[in-house]
Amino acid sequence: MTKPKKIAVVCNYALNPNRIGGMDRFWVAYDQKAKALGYEIDWYFSDYTPFEFFSELTIYSANSDNMESFFLEKVKQDSLKYDILVTHFLGLCSSFFKKAKATGIQQIIAVDHNPRPLEGFPLAKIIKNKIKGILYSSYIDQFIGVSNYAKKHILKDYGFFLDKKISVIYNGIDTSVFVKRTQENRNKFILTSHLRESKGIQDLLRALSIVEKPILSQIQIDMYGEGPYEDELRRLTAEFDLATIINFKGSSSKLNELYADYAYLIQPSHGETFCYSVIESLACNVPVITTVEAGNVLSVIKEDHNGFLFNAGNYNQLAAILKNIVLGNLKIEKDVSMPIEKEFNLEKMVNEHIQLLH
C-alpha cells in the first residue's frame, strides 16, 4: 500500500475569526479536497488562536514570529517529513526555499499574492531580486501567479528564464454564501481593505474633502478592515471634517452578507495582484469604483457597465465620480454579477491547485 504524501502549507497570514474572506474559504476547501484524495496536510500560519471555522485543519501558529524560521525550526525540532511544500504570501526566491528543499521536500509550489508598488521597485531592490532569482529559483518547482499581472511581475522581478515554471490560477469565491443587492441605496458606499498606505484610502478622504458640502452630506461610507495605517486615516478623517461621513467598522466575518446593503464598493488601491473585494462585490451585484490598473488588475471592471474607473492617486477624478453618482448623472442599474460566477469560483480554484500536486 502506497504511503500517503504529506503536504505542508506555509502562509504568512494571520487567521482572525472577525475576518473570514476568500482565502480563508479556499484553505478549508483545499484541506477537504486534499484529504479526500488521500493526502495528509499540515498548515502553518503567522498567528492563530483556534476558532470553529478552521477546526478541521491541523494548524501550527508562529505567534507572529518569522514565518520561514518558524517552519524550518518546527521541522527540525519535531523531525517532520514533508513531500510537498506550498507557500502563500511569502517572498519568492529567498534562501528559505533552498533550506526547505534540504529537509527532503520533493516538490515546492510558491503562490505569489504580493502587490508591487505603483511606482516600481527602487534600483537596489530590482538588482537584488534578479540575483535572488538566479540563486534560488531552482529550488521552486512551480510558481503560481493569482493573475496575469502577477505572472508578468514574477518574470520581471526574478528573470524571464522562469517562464516555463509559472502558471496562473485565479483566486475564486464561493458565490453561494454571498447575498445579492436588490435595493439601490444610491449614496451608501462600502470599502473593505487591509488598512495600509498602498490601498490608497487617503485618496478617498482627500476626494471627499473637495466635494461640496450639500453633496457630501448625502454620502455615507462604511470602511471595513484593520491595519497599520488606521491611525493616519482617522487623523485625516478628523482633519477633513469627515467624521459624519466615514464610519470605521473594523473587521467583519459577515462581509458576504454586508455588501448587499451598499450601492457601490470603493477600492482606490495603488497596488494589487488580484483584489478579492472587487470580485466579491460584483458577486453581490454591487458595482465597483476603482483604479484603472491596480484595482482593476483583473480587467473585469468596464466603465459604465459594472463600475467606474479613475487613475490611482487622482482624487479629483474620484471626487467627480462620487459627486455625479449623488447627482444622478452616473448610475449602473443592470445586474453585474453573472460573469463573476462563471470565471472566479472557489471550486475551480481548488481543483486547479490540487492538480499541481504530484
UniProtKB/TrEMBL annotation:
<dbReference type="InterPro" id="IPR001296">
    <property type="entry name" value="Glyco_trans_1"/>
</dbReference>
<keyword id="KW-0808">Transferase</keyword>
<dbReference type="GO" id="GO:0016757">
    <property type="term" value="F:glycosyltransferase activity"/>
</dbReference>
<dbReference type="InterPro" id="IPR028098">
    <property type="entry name" value="Glyco_trans_4-like_N"/>
</dbReference>
<protein>
    <submittedName>
        <fullName>Glycosyltransferase</fullName>
    </submittedName>
</protein>
<dbReference type="Pfam" id="PF13439">
    <property type="entry name" value="Glyco_transf_4"/>
</dbReference>
<feature type="domain" description="Glycosyltransferase subfamily 4-like N-terminal">
    <location>
        <begin position="74"/>
        <end position="176"/>
    </location>
</feature>
<feature type="domain" description="Glycosyl transferase family 1">
    <location>
        <begin position="178"/>
        <end position="328"/>
    </location>
</feature>
<dbReference type="Pfam" id="PF00534">
    <property type="entry name" value="Glycos_transf_1"/>
</dbReference>
